[in-house]
Amino acid sequence: RIEAIDATTSNVLASITISKTNANTVTSEVLPFVATGTETIIRITDMSAATINIDITIDNLVVISAEQAIDGEKIYQWKDLSGADNHAIQPEAARHGVLKNNTLNFNPSVRFDGNNDYYELPISIIDNGNPNYSIMSVQMQTSVKEAQVLYLGSTAGNRGIHHQLDGSGQFESSWPTPGGFWAGAPVPNKPDIYTAIYNNTSGKLLRQDGLQRGTNASTNLNFLQTAGANKLGAFPSMINFFNGDIYEVIVYNQKAAVGNELLRIESYLAVKYGITINQTTPQNYLASDNTIIW
User: Fold this and answer.
1) Which of 128, 192, 211, 222 is deepest in the core (most CB within 10 A)?
2) In 3-state terms, what secondary structure has residue 99?
3) pTM of the model
């Protein structure tokens, strides 16, 4: 048996038992775990003897993380950089997305195969009830199909949030039923910034690369945090797997971004990923301090 153990608390973070019937057989096993302290013990126990333990202590400060992964490597964890620890995790190696370096303006992405790749997310990303929220995502789909970028909350009624590319060739940011809301025009193999804003007094709006594509006056969200429901790259019932690259996802809880605040966020994503902000209505690119970049 191989176990990952927090060196301070002695809590077992993950374990795996390997049955070997042939001493000459070489196998490759994966033991995914999330470190909870400064050091982790990897303990190897000979179950047949039940007396032999080999402990290897590793310094978590120098362990290579997903951000340092090699191009083409499967990713177990996509780390949340907000400080809220809402990390996207996939324990099953067969469902890992693949890190692709330098895919868009020298930035990495996680590539999803459209068949079974996805990640689990923590339960408490959006508050229960009828909160304001803002979701921004940068993605590139390889072909038009119904494909989930992000799903949050319950799948029943108006208690969860879709953020997905729809099979009709539009982007959907809505609740299961009622409140369906489709807009925009995704093009396969073209990266886009999609922004979904919900204000619980005025309704929803959807933007594609800074251009407002549609509004919806529905304000009857009754969001319900649901264990095991939140997904990156799939719908909770294991359908609508995303096909293509996801570069970044930003979620603001209790915040409906508007005006220059919204433009600052979209400008950051546009400059970072080399995506042009739509100029159907002329608008500036803004820095974080509200100064004009151009």
Assistant:
1) 192
2) strand
3) 0.77
